[in-house]
What does this fold into?
Amino acid sequence: MTVIYNFSAGPAVLPKEVLQQAAAEMLDWHGSGMSVMEMSHRGAEFMSIMDAAQQDLRDLLAIPANYKILFLQGGGLGENAIVPMNLMGLRPDATIDFVHTGSWSGKSIKEAQKYAKVNVAASAAENGFTSVPARDSWKLTADAAYVHLCTNETIDGVEYHFVPDVAADTNGAPIVADMSSHILSREIDVSRYGVIFGGAQKNIGPAGLTIAIVRDDLLGQALPCCPSAFDWKIVAENGSMYNTPPTYAIYIAGLVFQWLKRQGGVAAMEQKNIAKATLLYDYLDSTDFYENRVEKAYRSRMNVPFYLKDETLNASFLAAAKERGLLQLKGHKSVGGMRASIYNAMPFEGVQALVHFMQEFAQASHK
It folds into this structure.
């Protein structure tokens, strides 16, 4: 039987152990006689799931006590509106600074312009979004409400491997980071950020859950137009239970958090991710059949876009990959080519299988 490796950018692969546990508990969660999907979100059974998931996430990221963990809906794209709606109420005339590093920061800029003045402090558009603009090139507003970064561009394959210093690099403005596609893949110092957010469907769990980690002093600043269900202060005061949360997605995320702890936590997972990314990038750099266009210092460990030099072979590459059980390698429609997303749940063996296939395909095509 062919082993399947799913390289989808999201919704993405989940750990097999998590899926097996969810399957075993599908009809009867811990003797309750109910599936998690059938539980009252305010019942003792689900509240225990919610509490454990929040605590496990706090443990994994060493989230300080003065930050709230919010379980929301709307995805990362929704947060592009929810963030300015939550942070501009006290200073509606202030400017938001953005660093434009690719498709997702571009979407964030467009959405924020509906609610506030926006300054694109730096952009990598001129080099085709193959790097993060140098920090000394950022033209920041003197008194910005906040600075928005997308710290891993899922489509373009660009990742920040540094954290800007609030005092030196952002004029004291808090940093808001969209970490949708690399949260929990590497150690981070949460205290360096004002807000961290991300959709769950890339590296945490199924689609439907969005996580926001918000510093306490940034609560209570919402614009009047902000819906109550997305007002961080209201959500925090109600323990993410102001409205019915995405209960099953939270349950699966909680299982993923437990799985991550069993793997040794985020530090151990980061080392595994470095090994996977190094294997794939080393092969791409060794061949003239494929190419990765991102500058080496900014390459994503999670999302690896690559191109066949002869793009007339794209269709046959994807067909042959599918026959080998290597799925969803087609690049995003906006950039073309291929993309391998190698999130936490992708085993090292999956990347080995991909590299071996790519070698064989290149050799066969040269004949």
Notes: Residues 17-262 form a domain with the Aspartate Aminotransferase; domain 2 fold (CATH 3.40.640.10). The mean pLDDT is 96.
